[in-house]
Amino acid sequence: MALLTIDLNALVANYRTIAATVAPARAAGVVKADGYGLGAGIVADALYRAGCRDFFVALTGEATALRPTLPADARLFVLNGIAPGEEAALIAADAVPVLNCPADIERWAAAGRIAGRRLPAAVQVDSGMSRLGLAPDEVAAIAADPTMLGGIELVLVMSHLACGDEPGSGANAAQRARFDELAAMLPPAERSLANSGGSFLGGGFHGDLVRPGIALYGGAPQDGRPNPMRPVVALEARIVQWRDVPAGTGVGYGLTSVASHDRRIATLSYGYADGWPRMLSNRGAAYVAGVRAPIAGRVSMDSICIDVTDVAVDLLVATPNAELIGPHQSIDAVAADAGTIAYEILTSLRHRHARRIVALTQQEDATCGS
Ligand SMILES: *Cc1c(COP(=O)(O)O)cnc(C)c1O
Q1: Strands 263-268, 304-307: pairing kind
Q2: Among residues 3, 1, 13, which one has the least CA distance to residue 366?
Q3: pLDDT category, 225, cuts 50, 70, 90?
Q4: What is the three-class DSSP state of 35?
Q5: Which of 36, 48, 217, 253 is catalytic?
Q6: Of 14, 126, 188, 341, which has the most beta carbons under 10 Å away?
Q7: How confident is the model at residue 367 (pLDDT cuts 50, 70, 90)?
Q8: How confident is the model at residue 336, as a pLDDT?
Q9: Any idea which positions bind substrate (predicted)?
């Protein structure tokens, strides 16, 4: 069986790197999509121990699942607003919805009237990404009639950067200026603009709270810059068998891999049903005993053939597993080979593997007595 290793010490080290970078602003933890596929519960628990008190998920259902695992002083934001009928579930999860549109505001204000108290919420404004958040005229309408937020306790005004991972993009400064302008029209509240990339754009982008996701999990926060984060994830797949194939022999479905020389082909017990992109057919590689073994032929549902011709036989015999993600191949490298981003590689991984959690050492666990 394949083995996914999650290093919580690296996760916490990444959190601390970001927290130190943005101080005195605080760092939240974005744990949507089940903690980017790694397990929202274990990720949030480790981040909490490192001092994180603000968590973001995308869906009400994610908040419902995560809340019982979190201490009461952890704030849990729901990014995608309020789907009709989810008000009670949000209140039960003690969640803070991000209100993205006037309908969200009306729903939450009405829920507050029914609950007989002001309910906490974040408001998102669209500072230029055209994805989620109030349009400038909608913000102006609230500025003109603040009673629209009656029944709501505004705890955070936020927006999201379209190009936070591109430090050279002029869009970042433009969004920051637009965000500052829109936030100033709303009642005073803490502000949040930066994702992982934005956390490294400098102090003007930090506001009160940054919202890193991918960088916590070891992904590079910014394009074209050295990755300051520690790798959190490693993935190994079992080598089921290997064989020598003469020149001219096809490998895998469609026989799409044929070479003019003799090859040695090993077969891994891992495939697209495990979450390895089929786009990596005849692209990318695994590593066997540290040696690059290119993927040969199409990625199958449950298996991948790799070319281990360059691996010494004695090493091959002694190596039960191949590295798919690890010291030789980062999540960003896999993503580049597959024409996608590390986010998609992580969130695509299924649960058809054993999971090994490297627990926090006492040193990294701030909640342990010293
Ligand atoms: C996903 C998300 C984040 C985290 O983004 P990363 O690029 O993973 O750091 C932050 N804010 C919002 C609104 C998001 O949707």
Answers
A1: antiparallel
A2: 13
A3: very high
A4: helix
A5: 253
A6: 14
A7: low
A8: 98
A9: 131, 301
* Residue to mutate, 57, 159, 160, 222, ligand 1, most ligand atoms under 8 Å from C-beta: 160
Determine the average pLDDT of the residues in 291-304: 98
Find residue 75's DSSP bridge partners. 54
Is 270 designated active site?
no
Distance CA 79, CA 124 (A): 9
- Is-above-0.85 flag for pTM? yes
Closest by CA position to 51, among listed 269, 347, 370, 368: 368
Report whether pLDDT(368) > 60.
Answer: no
Three-class SS state of 199: helix
Cα angle 293, 297, 299 (rounded to 5 degrees) comes to: 90
Written as one string, the DSSP assignment of 106-127 is HHHHHHHHHHTSPEEEEEEB-S
Element (H, E) at 8: helix 8-22
* Whether 272 is catalytic: no
Point out which residues pair with 295 in neighbouring strands: 306
Domains defined for the chain, CATH in brackets = 8-217 (3.20.20.10), 233-329 (2.40.37.10)
